[in-house]
Design a protein that fits this description.
The N terminus is likely disordered. The chain has a single domain, classed as OB fold (Dihydrolipoamide Acetyltransferase, E2P) (Beta Barrel). The radius of gyration is 17 Å and the shape is globular. The protein contains four helices and seven strands. The chain has a five-stranded mixed barrel with strand order 3-4-5-7-6. The chain is of the alpha+beta class and 155 residues long.
Amino acid sequence: MRTISWLGLVVLAVAVGLTAADWSAYKQAKLSQAWASATFAKEPNSQSLEAAPQQYKFAVKATYTGRLRKMSSKRSHLISEWGKTLHAQDFAQHFEQEVEVRADGLTVWLALQDVLVDAFSREIKAGGPVQLWIMYVGAAQQDRIFLVNEFQAVK
C-alpha cells in the first residue's frame, strides 16, 4: 500500500512540474522588436535555421485579427527541419495552423501549437488583445517563422 502511495505522489509531482511552465526565458518586447531581431538569409530562395533559439524568445502583446489559416508547406517544411535539429522528427505535425496578429504597424502570421488552437479560438476574439510567448525558429525565403508556445487574453 505504501509503495502505491509513494508512486502516486511521484507521478503527481512530475505532472505538476511539467505543467508549471517557466516563461522567464522570454524577454518582454514589442512585436516589432522581436521581428527586427529575427535574422534571415538575404537570398530570395534560401532558408535559414536558428540553432540556438533561446535568445529568440519573446513575450509580446498584439491584437488578434480573427484570421486563422492552415500553414503553407514551405513554412511547415522549415519547422520540420528545425525540429530535426532537436531530434524531434515529427515536430512540424504539432504546428498546422497559424494565427494572424497585429501590433506596432505589423501584421504577421504566427505558427500556433495544435494543442492551443481550440483554446485560442474560444478565449481570444477578433480584435481582442493577447499576450503571446513566441520563439523564432528561422525564415523561409525571408518569411520569418515564430512559434506560439503560450498565450493569454489581455484584460
